[in-house]
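Appendix B. Raw example, untouched.
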Amino acid sequence: MPDYHPKVSIIIPVYNTAKHLSRCLKSVVTQTLSEIEIILINDGSTDKSISVVDAFAKKDSRIVIINQRNQGVSVARNNGLRVAKGEYVGFVDSDDSVDAAYFENLYNTAKKEKADMVSGFVKMNDDRRQHFYNYTNKRATRFNRCSLMGVVWLNLYKRSILSENSIFFPSNLRTAEDNLFNLRATYFANKVVAADDDSVFYNHITRETSLTAQQYKTSNLIPLSIAVLETITELNRLDDYDKDVYISRVYDTVNFLYQRYTALDNIGIYRKYKISNIISKSLLNTKYRVDVLSKLRENDIYLKKLIYGLKAKNLLEEKPHKKKNFKQSIKYLFKKSTIKHLIKKVIKFILPHGLVVAYKERRENSNVKAAEIDPKKIAIIAAYPETKYFEIVKKAASLAGYRTSDRVSDAKYVWLHWYENGVSSYADLVKKVSSIERWRSQGRKVIFHIHNKKPHESKAPNVSHALMAVLADCSDHVSIMSSATEELLKDTWYYGEDFSHVSKVPHPNYIGVYGDAEKATSLNGQKLKILFFGLIRPYKGIEHLLAATEGLKDVEVSIIGKPSKEEYADEIRALCAHRDNVTIRFEHIKDKEIPKIFAEHHILALPYNIDSSLNSGAALLALSYGRTVVGTNNGTLKDIKNSKLYFGYDYSDEADHPIQLKKTIESIQSKYRGDSNKLLEIGDNVLKLVKQDNSIEKVSQSIQEMIERIR
C-alpha cells in the first residue's frame, strides 16, 4: 500500500512467542482505530511464530512483515521504526495484548492535547496500575523533563520527534533498552500527557521467561548503568538546566541503579565496586560533580559505603584486586574433595606463576650486546604489517638511508605501530611494557606512533587505552601523524607545552599505489553519489550515514568493503533492507578495482566516531584519487589548511551525529544542486595538495629528522 498514510504504526517484535502470539495479534487487528499499520519483525524465531504471522498477514493488508536473524528486541524495533509511516508510533510485546480502544484512546488524546507523547494505563496480572508522567510546564527545561520512564509499550510517540532527532534503541543493550529510548524521547518531546480514558488498558503479563522479568540481572545492569548515566551526562550538555534539578536527576538515577543491584542475590563486593566505578566515571564530566557526590554521601548510608573510595581529585575509583589471602586460598583449593578438581585448581593457580618466573628468567638472559646493534636499522613493529601503508613507510625509511625489519633483532630503533592492540589483560600490558624496558636497556631507542585516540576493537579497551598512556611516557620518542595529536597529548597525557620528544611523520599519500586514477565516465551530475569505502567496523558510523541519507532525494550511497564482524554486517544489511538508493558490497576488494570505485563516486563519507578516531588512511586514499571527503573533523582533515577542500562537521553525542551529517550533506546538495560533478574540481585541487604535503619524499624527510632528534 504505497499511498497508505496510517494514523498509528504499531511495532511488534516477534521471537518464539507462538503460544501467545494469536491472542496478541487478534487484539491489535481489531482495534477501533482502523487507520493503522502493523509492523511485525520476526527476530529469527525458531518455533511456529512465523506461521502465525503469515496467517494473519494473509487476512489483513495492514500488516507489514520484516524478517531478520536473531539480533534482539532493540534492533527489531529500530528496523520497525525505519519503515514506519504513521503519524504516531506505538509498541506492543508479542506476548501481551491491548484493549480494543487502546490506540484510539492514545491517538485522540495526542491530537486533542497536541502532545508529542501520550502515556497509557497498564493492567499487570489483573492488578491495575497507573503509569504515566505528565509534563505540560512550558517553562521547564528539556533536561528537567527527561525521564527514566521504563517501558515503551505503554506510550504513543509522534514519529517526527523520533526521526528528526534520530531516537533509536541502543543495539548494545539486550534488555532495559526502553530506559535509554525514553530518556531521549522525553527530552525532545515538547509535551507529554496521560491518556484521557483511564479505563482502557495495555494488558501485560510478567513471566519468568519474559524480557521484563530478565532485564535486571546483574550482567545486564552493568551496561545499562553505563548507558543511562552517560546519556544523562550528554543531555545536560544540550540545554540550560537547573542545578538542583540536575543533581536530583543524577542522584535518583544512581540510587535506582544501586537499589536494583542490592536487591539481587549473591551480588558480592566486586560487583558493588564495579557499579561504584561506573558511577564515579559518570561524575567526571558533570558540572556539579562535587555537589552530586556530597548528596550521595549525605542521603544514603549504602551509597556512602559504596563510593567511599573515590579519589578526591578526579572522583575515579580504581578497580580492587580480587586477591585471596593464604587461608582463603587453601580453603578454596580443598573446597571440593575430588582429586580431579584439586589438580585443576593447582594448575590454574600455580602454573601461571611458574610461567611468569620462567618468562622473566628467559628475558634476563637474552640481552643483546651493544656492539651487535645496527645504528642504520629500524624495526617497524606493527599489528597490521601487510598493508600498503607500511610498504610506503618502509620505502620512505629506505630513502632516508635506513634499513627496515619486521623483527627487533639487531635494529637500533624500534618503531611501534598499533602496539596497544592485542592486549586482553593487565598481564599483557606488563609483558609489552617489560619488552620496551628490555629494548631500552639494550641501548635501543623506542618510538611510539599514535594512530588513534583510543583502540577501536580491543578485547580489553580500558587496558589498551592505559597501555597507550604508558607507551607515551616510557618510550624514548613519540611520532604523530597530525597536529591534532599534540592537543591529545597535552590534554590527556599531561605533556604540557613540551613537545621536544614528539615528531610529526605525515601519513603518506596513495597516488598510483593501486593503479592510475580513472576518469569519471559514469557520473551523472543530477545525483550525488556518496561512497563509504574500507573495512566495515562499528566505530566507522555506517549506521549514521544510512540514517542521514534516508529520505534525501537525488542521493545514492555505496557501502563497499570487508566486514570485520559478520554480526555488524548483518545489522547494516537489515538497515538497508528497504533502501532503493543504497548499494552494498561486503567483500575483499582487489587492488586493481579501487581506482574505478572512486571514479564512480563524487565524494567519500567518513562518519567516524570522533571519540576514538584521530587519523584516517581512507581519507588520504580518497584525496589521492581526486575525491573530496565529508566526515567528522578528525586530525587528517584538520591538517588540510584550506577548509573549502573538504566538508567537515562536529557533533555533540551519538544521537546528534546523523543530524549533523545530514545537515552537511544537505548543504552540499544545496550548493551543487543539479551539478554534483563540480565536486570533482575540488577533488582535483585536494589531489595537488596531498601530492605535495604527503609525498614519500616528505615522509622520508620527516623520518630522517625524527631519528636525528633521538640519535
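End of appendix B.
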